[in-house]
Design brief:
Elements: H1 6-15, H2 18-32, H3 36-53, H4 62-74, H5 78-85, H6 90-116
Length: 127
């Protein structure tokens, strides 16, 4: 797949396994960090407040409630803030992107060269 749009680049990053690796590394760092208890408390408070404020959630299935809680948490920049505070190498992502784009450029260049090279008649070919 030739990744030329940002969406395609993100999909290529995810399908390479690098996104999962990054996610697991960040989660491991969070679990070891001093920020974890505060982060968990903020998540609990958001969920508790939403459940207390919206009685329509109670009859929903556990999966539907979980979906609602995730959407509620996403309204706040809590996850962004905790990730920003973790020490992780953004340069790893930059390196992957640069390598991927260089590989894509090489593939495109090779494909273009192959299409434009003249066909040479070989032995046994008749003209």
């Amino acid at each position: 797949m030739s990744a030329v749009t940002p969406h395609q680049l993100v999909e290529a990053y995810k399908s390479s396994g690098e996104f999962d690796k990054l996610r697991k590394d960040l989660l491991a760092q969070l679990k070891k960090s001093e920020a974890l208890p505060d982060f968990q408390e903020k998540i609990r408070n958001i969920a508790r407040d939403r459940l207390q404020a919206d009685a329509k959630l109670w009859p929903l299935s556990p999966d539907a409630i979980t979906k609602e809680m995730v959407q509620e948490v996403e309204r706040f920049p809590i996850v962004d803030r905790v990730v920003a505070d973790l020490k992780w190498e953004k340069s790893d992502i930059r390196s992957w992107v640069e390598k991927h784009l260089a590989d894509e450029k090489d593939k495109l260049s090779s494909a273009t060269t192959a299409k434009t090279e003249p066909q040479v008649a070989g032995k046994g070919d008749t003209m």
